[in-house]
Amino acid sequence: MHVVIIAAANHALREPFAGGLESLTWHLVRGLRRRGVEVTLFSGPGSDPALGAHEILVEPLELSQTARRDVAMPPERWLREHHSYLQAMLDLLGRTDVDLIHNNSLHYLPIALAATLPAPMLTTLHTPPTPWLEPAIRLMDQRRARFVAVSAHTARSWRHVTSAQVVLNGVDVEQWRPGPGGEDLVWFGRLVPEKAPHEAVRIALGAGQRIRLAGPVSDADYFDAAVRPLLGPRADYLGHLGTDDLAALVGQSAATLVTPVWDEPYGLVAAESLACGTPVLGYDRGGLREFVPPDCGVLVPGGDLQEATRRVEEAAGLDRATCRRQAVQHCSVERMIEDYLEVYAQVLAPGRAA
């Protein structure tokens, strides 16, 4: 089987990953190749050289001075991204050696142009409906495409537009190894308002616990205004760590706080935490409860800092071996790859499949 994977172009697929989408796509490519699938990858520049990716960023964007003088010209970054995906889709127009295209981007163009390609397209829905993606899906010929959602919660959020099978995201349980635990709490991920690390710090401090934070500062203004003032002897920011260092940190923690103020489509950090044997204390939002059962985590109503603070000790006391077992059985990359291969076979039937 020859599968083309279209990644999001905004960030490179390499460690330290910019976010869960980049980690997922990197593992998907490698996992499929281990299973004997031929994979051609289109991704943004600077991706891991071992992936052999075709860059899909048009750089620089060539515009005449006449075009630039157009008063209605949209932001150049938007134009660059638009033409990046257009370039990738044009590259695929004449390809007859491709069995299936797996779209993991968040852009509307691959979906809008899917019907022009010889091979069928499978799109993974990583987000709730957006004003760009939703109309593109409504207008497309859905006989030429299939959809997968990263959680049942995400599938439900799209059901007014299309139906989607569920393939839960996976994490590398060989890299996210179980650790001994410890006394401190941990929060990790992109430091942005919608993930609310400042609430995690307040929960930890309210419970009299030390907390360590790690991840990229994707919104410097938010970090300076809401997070930095809370840092001190009981709250440390450790920077943007690579996976090995991050797994060691999580494995040495009593519990992971997951505090989104929006409905996370999946919640990859919770799966990574469980793989390290570290229980989760999280807001019961989005897809989290689909893979964090009561014996592996404590889920409280979103934004209820008082309830979360009260239950820190309960979460930290959950059995670490049970958390690890849950991750291996239900949250692994291998399980995700197996699920995707089944979906690929369905999309290609009655044609050739793996």
Describe the structure.
This protein is an alpha/beta fold and 354 residues long. Strand 6, helix 6 and strand 7 form a beta-alpha-beta unit. It folds into two domains: 2-170 and 333-348, Rossmann fold; 185-330, 3-Layer(aba) Sandwich (Rossmann fold). The relative contact order is 0.13. The model has no long low-confidence stretch (mean pLDDT 92). Helix content is 36%, strand content 15%. It is built from 14 helices and 13 strands.
> What's the overall geometry?
globular
Mean pLDDT: 92
Element order, helices and strands? EHEEHHEHEHEHEEHEHEHEHEEHHHH
What percentage of residues falls in helices of 4 or more residues?
Answer: 25-40%
Q: Which structural class should the secondary elements be placed in?
A: alpha/beta
Strand order of the largest sheet: 3-2-1-4-5-6-7
Question: Any idea what the CATH architecture of the largest domain is?
Answer: 3-Layer(aba) Sandwich
Which helices and strands appear, and what pairs or packs with what?
Elements: E1 2-6, H1 20-34, E2 38-43, E3 54-55, H2 65-68, H3 76-93, E4 100-103, H4 108-112, E5 121-125, H5 133-139, E6 145-149, H6 152-157, E7 165-166, E8 185-188, H7 197-206, E9 211-214, H8 220-227, E10 235-237, H9 243-251, E11 255-258, H10 268-275, E12 280-283, E13 297-300, H11 305-310, H12 312-316, H13 320-330, H14 333-348
Parallel strand pairs: 1-2, 1-4, 2-3, 4-5, 5-6, 6-7, 8-9, 8-11, 9-10, 11-12, 12-13
